[in-house]
Design goal:
627 residues, alpha/beta, Alpha-Beta Plaits, 3 domains, eight-stranded mixed β-sheet, globular
Length: 627
């Protein structure tokens, strides 16, 4: 299932004066993400009032802070400032990058509604007063359906305060940072960025290098002053949702040294931090950029060579020898995300999308990479591939063609006590049946779905006869029509055993389709089955046994990036290993416990070390098939 990620980006009015931020938004859009921008308007409002020759009314709060006073008579001017100054600047800045923009105040068409705040306690002429007509409020409703439609229609949707009063009064001014956080929660956003003029939250406001890099709720309140208090409040509000939250700057989202990242849940021990953070960065297929960049930074902080390559894969390594052990994980997950959380104490359990499939495997690879001594003549390379969970397998194909290896460990959940030696292959086809348009009540009428159902049955029978262990499922189904014909289309997915003749499967499927049926072959990836007697399998078996388990060896009926490598790599030993229960893959109950993660990481560490020792001692010749 395809799902485009959503960024909610709050840009302060001073940041709008920095054109680089529009280029950054364009780059995010170019990656295929949807973008909802929230524009602050303080500078635009000041400009409007100056040009109109109006004084901007102010109120002094009991704590000494000064805020803009917005009685009903001033709200039309506030709205005009956004419509005449702030939003046109946003449209122009984004249009310069070729982006189609829908920009409006959030009150328009009741996209966002709110409720008025209680009367405000202020100080006037040195005495406390109560102000009843201040048109400030809090967000109470978001028209998620209409906003989603706009996001699908435009490159960028930009909203600004104020919002519609649900009770019917004049518009309500709301804090733009809090508006952004509320929108992120309402729309299940993947990423929330609150862009400011400082490099994140500073522990010492006078020192721009004192960025608080990581925070959980309650950490930053002691440092935040002035407008930063609202940004921290908004960031912590957004932790109730699904978004990866960061306050970024100065006036940029590019350099993450100026980021304060907010984490919704805190790991119970330091050795679980990488796993915990990786799980909290959404990375649904085609949205792996943020996770790849974070992990690359983690590696570089530990002295490892790391980069994000031209297709988006994370590539990290230690050693520079001519022979390579490749640890191949993947960055992406299937939809959909939900708030990540730790629960329990013994064992502690991490819940969330990707905890099993397969962020635990990838972070274990990186932990081992950071701690392993790589012998002369060898390179230990970790790749976090993109698009493993979709048919493209773009990351793995790039690995196959650009990163040769002498042995491969694929990061997929086998459970800490088991080793996967191979996978079934994938044979996927799109089947379309067509019939002339006509009334379904006609004599012996056959509809397009009728014809499609018959074709699918015949194709399944023919393929299973050719590969008797094959499994099949219809994974997509839709109907359409034009002026002359009716169409029904299905995607038929087969899992086929290692050794199945894919060319023969193509031939029998085509013969079985019948008249009026068209077949498109979407994917034909062979299965792979390795040997438990390879040196790579042996070191894992021994490490599992020393960890207290009797090793189990698996041939899985799913597929992995191992299949993609096997399309051209020959005589390269491959296994798959990783923590977690694979029956939880792609489920709403996906979780992993800390003890399982630690056991698998220890097995992996021992197996990698033993493999290097064994290979060096035996002086094995480098296999040529992958090179």
């Amino acid at each position: 299932m395809s799902r485009r990620s959503l960024y909610v980006i709050k840009i302060g009015s001073s940041t709008l004066l920095h054109p680089g931020v529009f280029a950054e938004i364009a780059a995010i859009r170019a990656r295929g993400a949807r973008v909802l921008m929230v524009a602050g308007g303080a500078e635009g409002i000041e400009r409007y009032y100056r040009s109109a020759g109006r004084d901007m009314p102010q109120l002094t709060l009991g704590n000494g802070d000064t805020v803009r006073y917005c009685p009903p008579t001033e709200m039309p001017h506030i709205v005009a400032a956004y419509r005449q100054i702030t939003l046109p600047a946003v449209e122009a800045g984004l249009a310069a990058h070729g982006l189609a923009v829908h920009a409006c105040v959030a009150a328009d068409a009741a996209l966002v509604t709110g409720t008025a705040n209680r009367p405000l306690r202020v100080v006037r002429d040195g005495r406390p007063r109560i102000v009843h007509d201040h048109r400030a409020g809090t967000v109470s409703g978001v028209d998620a359906v209409r906003l989603t439609t706009l996001l699908d229609a435009y490159d960028v949707v930009c909203l600004s305060p104020p919002v519609r009063d649900a009770a019917g009064g004049a518009e309500l001014n709301v804090d733009a940072d809090v508006l952004a956080a509320t929108l992120a929660n309402a729309l299940d956003a993947d990423h929330l960025r609150l862009v400011t003029g400082t490099p994140g939250v500073l522990s010492d406001p006078a020192d721009p290098t004192s960025t608080v890099r990581d925070a959980v709720a309650g950490d930053c309140g002691r440092y935040a002053t002035g407008r930063m208090r609202q940004k921290v409040r908004a960031a912590e509000l957004a932790l109730r949702g699904t978004a990866h939250v960061a306050i970024t700057g100065p006036h940029t989202m590019v350099d993450d040294r100026g980021w304060t990242r907010f984490w919704a849940t805190e790991e119970p021990a330091g050795d679980l931090r990488l796993l915990s953070h990786a799980a909290q960065i959404p990375s649904v297929s085609h949205d792996e950029h943020e996770l790849a960049a974070y992990l690359a930074g983690w590696c570089r902080d530990r002295g490892l060579t790391a980069r994000v390559d031209e297709v988006g894969n994370l590539v990290a390594e230690r050693g520079d020898g001519p022979r390579t052990l490749l640890l191949l994980g993947h960055l992406d997950t299937v939809p959909f995300t939900w708030p990540v959380r730790w629960s329990g104490d013994d064992p502690a359990v991490l819940h969330g999308r990707g905890t099993v499939d397969a962020k635990a495997s990838l972070t274990a690879f990186l932990d081992v990479l950071a701690g392993t001594d790589v012998p002369d003549g060898w390179r230990l390379r970790v790749v976090g591939a993109v698009e493993e969970e979709v048919s493209s397998s773009r990351g793995a194909f790039h690995v196959r063609d650009h990163y040769p290896a002498d042995a491969v460990v694929v990061g997929e959940p086998s459970g800490s006590g088991a080793l996967t030696l191979g996978y079934f292959g994938l044979f996927k086809l799109r089947v379309t049946a067509a019939v002339p348009s006509g009334h379904s009540a006609g004599f012996q009428a056959v509809s397009a779905p009728d014809r499609l159902a018959g074709a699918l049955d015949r194709i399944r029978t023919a393929v299973v006869k050719e590969a008797d262990d094959a499994l099949s499922a219809v994974i997509d189904l839709r109907c359409d029509a034009d002026a002359t014909s009716q169409y029904a289309t299905a995607v038929l997915n087969f899992r086929v055993p290692p050794g199945a003749d894919l060319d023969a499967l193509r031939a029998v499927a085509g013969e079985a389709a019948g008249d009026g049926v068209r077949i498109e072959f979407l994917r034909a990836t062979p299965g792979y089955a390795g040997s438990r007697t390879s040196g790579l399998a042996k070191v894992f078996g021994r490490a599992i046994a020393r960890g207290g388990s009797r090793p189990r060896f698996l041939l899985k009926k799913g597929t992995s990036d191992m299949n993609t490598l096997a399309t051209t790599w020959r005589d390269v030993p491959m296994v798959a290993y990783g923590p977690g229960d694979s029956t939880l893959d792609h489920t709403r109950d996906e979780h992993i416990d800390a003890a399982e993660y630690r056991r698998a990481r220890a097995v992996l560490d021992e197996a990698v070390t033993a493999f290097f020792a064994l290979s060096t001692a035996e002086g094995e010749q480098r296999p040529g098939g992958a090179r």
